[in-house]
Amino acid sequence: MRNQLATELLFALSQPGRRGALFPDSDVPEKPLNELIPQSALAAKPTDLPEVTEPDVIRHFVNLSTLNMCVDTHFYPLGSCTMKYNPKRHERLAGLPGIVDLHPYQNPSDLQGMLELLYGMQEMLAEISGLPAVSLQPAAGAQGEFTALLTAKAYFESRGEKRTKVLFPNSAHGTNPASAALAGFDCVQLESSEEGLIDLDDLKSHLDDQTAVFMVTNPNTLGLFEKDIKQIAQMVHDAGGLVYIDGANMNAILGYTRPGDFGGDMMHFNVHKTFTGPHGAGGPGAGPIAVRDFLADFLPGPVIKRTETDSTENQFVLEDPPKSIGRIRTFYGNIGILVRGYCYLRTLGAEGLKAVSENAVLNANYLKVILKDVLPVPNGDLCMHEFVASASKIKSENGITAMDIAKRLLDFGFHAPTVYFPLVVTEAIMVEPTETESKETLDAFAETIRKILKEDPEFLREAPHSTDISRPDEVIAARNPILQCCEPQ
Amino acid sequence: MDQGNLKFTKTHEWVGVEGEIATMGITDFAVNQLTDLVYIELPEVGSNCEAGKVFGEVESVKAVSDLYSPVSGEITEANTALVDDQSPLSDDPFGTGWITKVKMSNPAELDLFMNADDYRKFCESEAH
Amino acid sequence: MPYLFNTPEQQQEMLQAIGVDSVEALFATIPSELRLNRQLNIPPALTEMELQTHVSNLAEKNVGPSSRVCMLGGGAYDHFIPAAVDEIARRGEFYTAYTPYQAEASQGSLQTFFEFQSLICRLTGMDVSNASLYEGGTCVSEAAFMAMRVTKRHNRIVLLGSMHPEYRQVVESYLNHLNCEVIVVPSVNGCVDPADVDKAMNDQTACLVIQHPNFFGTLEEAEQLTEIAHKYGALSVVSYDPISLGLLNRPGDYGADIAIAEGQSLGTPLQFGGPYLGLFSCSKKFVRRMPGRLIGQTVDRNGKSCFVLNLQAREQHIRRDKATSNICSNQGLIAIRATVYLSLLGKQGIREVAELSCRKAHYAAEQLSQIEGISLLFNDRPFFKEFVLSCSEGPDYLLRKARQAGFDLGPELSRFEFQTDSETYQTGVLVAITEQRTREEIDRLVMALKA
Ligand SMILES: Cc1ncc(COP(=O)(O)O)c(C=O)c1O
């Protein structure tokens, strides 16, 4: 049961004079503060943070944590997000002294182990993508997209070309258009074909000498491999443009095929997804990008280089590429997440990675097949690592929506799939089981969906029934946003 | 306002004209598509608007939609009551849910728009 | 294989249900000419035991604060992290969940982020905070974009030259390729003259970005600069040090429109530069122009108070190319760390950490600058916890000598480009002192440098 008292807002737990952390007295000669800092810059009164004890803090946040569903506790088939198991060894190793406590401005000769690790990561990502030049800097997939688009822009400018358009299909994730707009491109959204793939005719009609980049997710957000990708890439290249592969779905194709081999010029990885980051209640992620060699000189600085020098000098160095687009963040990247990704790749090796994709694809196809009589999947026969079902038939028959199903699943101890994305499927239910789930779990999940679909639609509209809260009122929330509990003082 | 006297745009704004003043709003069709409205941003009185350009926005839980000005001119009034309560937009979109009044600089722009019948047909085709 | 479940028998059963005869056949939609016909060339798999040895060996090649006293600064600081922060951040319920899309199954994260937003508002005196951005540098560009949306001035922003040079580079990469001028007002003697800023501003400027305390540790005339920004109808964007707000005026108190920061100091280890925490707060009237996720309080169907992702219509998954930012995954877990850290510190603790850092830094500056050949580069300016030393023998000499004695100072200013005075600046070395440093350590450094 919820501990009501401990989970009140932190501010309500505050009592004047309580302390959660004590610090030693100053050991340097005491001077009046206003001799150190001008009075005018000093705050007139102390910052009014809540006053609680350490046991308060622990009980409060531990209790709150138990109100979450997570991968450690539940099946979490959130499509597009690759909610796979997060190995515990990663947490230990990313926390080792010599990893977790390094300052970014230390002397490089004191960082050779870290730089060697990151260099190894660059090399592995280059091999997995089939694209030779890697920047580890982007903080997440979205920043990877943006960074690659700037890289492409700089490349075109170096050739005296000014290309203004970025194309993407209507099944694209929202970050694709948002990143393109941020990078100052005009956005052109293409229709998908009947099969849920890129419509070659529509693509053709939009390609011209203004086309800078075509952004494509492969496998796409419907969980389908773009089988014409080679031809698509050829068409884009013929128009003088570049192909960007959104690598959010790499979990389906590791060791089977590589973006560089199917025509991609640039891509991002979502290390928090494919290489089990973890997801951290929303982040941090890491979104390294890999690009073709003719784009390498434009990557953001610095990148890690291995030098062929004698042993007295540093073997690994940080270097700015010669025509770099500049910095896209402070320091070098979300290193803590990259270290975890490195540990994952070193644990699996080549065979292990291939087995990951095989089992991810097997699990998705199996779940799709045992559900298809009740939850039809409009596009594709075989899927890759995820599938997108539609509840629109059920909705028209008895009013049950994708949202109702998602909410009711929570009652049965399953996290909901992604719903209402991608936009090309109405009443979309996007299921990504991942490879780290058993057949037993998939069977139980399918069984539960069947049960739910037989329930009273009215009852489902009120679901969930057993969670800590029922459905929140989003209209009230948005009309009069309450975004903090403190009145401005 | 009587819908029969109004003109309609493909972006679901309506315009009613009295003399050189055009009153503008959004249609019931648009409001239904947006579902529950939570916010509206109005242009400043005295500012200029341009036909086909954004002059404000409406927001629901599910979407933010730009408002495109059907005509060019100077904003003479804005329905500030909507800022605190957006319900007239859905309850009475052609009456108390009006959004702005504009002193038109080029009334000929009105000729481009649909009448009520054509607009209904247009909506039917959009709904599919 | 680690982490996999399906036994060969189960695989067979599943394949049968699907109606194909091999796993290979599931990949039929990938045309054969696109297949990789060899194994990936990556290092061989390691067991947990072997991996631990391998990573430990790499870690041992690094020389970190465990063997050297850290007086490094420049935007990342060695503040103390109470054990309770790690304890909460290590809970699988937090770190193995994702963005709280399903509010009913995520009240833990949602309430924690709501408390995070509330704490950041109290800390800064601002009205609203989002639930995090990537890090301090990208916060500046997000603030600049937001200022352009608010002011509808898209072609010009002004930055103080005393800002972190890497933040400036980030903004330049984000804005230069657009039609936006980034004007940098040079710093003189470690800070910027408000009169120079006044000259650089005009009525087409979207915002003025002030870092206070600045990259050199020095205090800027933040209030006066904010007034100057407002005089031109521009937004005042202040990049602050969150620890400094235990002592200094809050951005909200002196009228900042947007307050941003690198939040690493609030309970996150240095970990070679990331993941860190972008703090972003602003005045209420701009809330619908804000980038990033926002958590709001509301009620459920039974009228029970609860929390939910709010104002999502601004975000990329709904607004796509017109979104207020492209950010999707943010820095959630680091925001949780900051929430726990600020809860533990409380009103008294944040003041103590600020005061201790400030007092010890002043002691260190005083002692170090008495050494022959060493002086404070900007000696007439007030500073908070960080200052710049200049050494007659050059920065490398100073750094080397300190290292030999077991101290890491820096970064040296010669790593960066500054617009002005670059010759004087080239000699400088930053020194940052947190509450963790002791008088004994400082005295030992002084002795070593005197020798
Ligand atoms: C297909 C796709 N592209 C891009 C992204 C953006 O990645 P990130 O959240 O790491 O910025 C996502 C993540 O949600 C995604 O699913």
Put the structure in a nutshell.
The complex is a heterotrimer of chains A (489), B (128) and C (451). Chain A has 489 residues and is an alpha/beta fold.
List keywords for this structure.
heterotrimer, A: 489 residues, alpha/beta, Aspartate Aminotransferase, domain 2, 3 domains, 7-stranded mixed beta sheet, 12 strands, C: 451 residues, 14 helices, binds pyridoxal-5'-phosphate
Tally of helical segments of chain A: 14
Q: Give the low-pLDDT segments of chain A.
A: none
- CATH topology label of chain B: OB fold (Dihydrolipoamide Acetyltransferase, E2P)
Question: How many strands appear in the DSSP assignment of chain B?
Answer: 9
CATH hierarchy, class of the largest domain in chain A: Alpha Beta
Shape of chain A: globular
Biggest protein-protein interface? Answer: A-C, 207 and 211 residues
Strand order of the largest sheet of chain B: 1-2-3-9-8-5
What is the H/E order of chain A?
Answer: HHHHEHEHEHEHEEEEEHEHHEEHHH
Largest sheet of chain A: 7 strands, mixed
Q: Structural class of the helices, strands and pairings of chain B?
A: alpha+beta
Given the helix and strand composition of chain A, which structural class is it?
A: alpha/beta
SSE topology string of chain B: EEEHEEEEEHHEH
CATH architecture of chain B: Beta Barrel
Assembly classification: heterotrimer
Question: What is the CA-atom radius of gyration of chain B, in angstroms?
Answer: 13 Å
The end-to-end distance of chain A, rounded to whole angstroms, is 36 Å
Radius of gyration of chain A: 25 Å
Quick one: CATH superfamily of chain B? Answer: RNA polymerase II/Efflux pump adaptor protein, barrel-sandwich hybrid domain
Annotated CATH topology of the largest domain in chain A: Aspartate Aminotransferase, domain 2
Tally of alpha and pi helices of chain B:
4
